[in-house]
Amino acid sequence: MKDLLVLIVITILTVGGGSAQTKQHYHVLPVDEEQAVKLVMNAPSVSCRINSTYNMRAVSIYGYPENQTFNPIEVNQINNDIHLVKLNFEGQTENFTSSISGRVFGQVSESNKPWHVYLSRGIPFDLDLHYGMGNSTVDLSGLTVEKFKITTGSADIKVGYFGSVPNRVPMDTFYAKVDLGVLELDYLNLSRAKEVVAEVGFGKLLMHFSNEVTTKSHIKASVGAGSMVVLLDNPETPLIVYFNDSPLCRIKMLKHFKEIEPNVFVNDSYDGEASNLISFNIDVAMGNVVFKMNE
Question: Beta partners for 50?
Answer without folding.
Answer: 117, 138
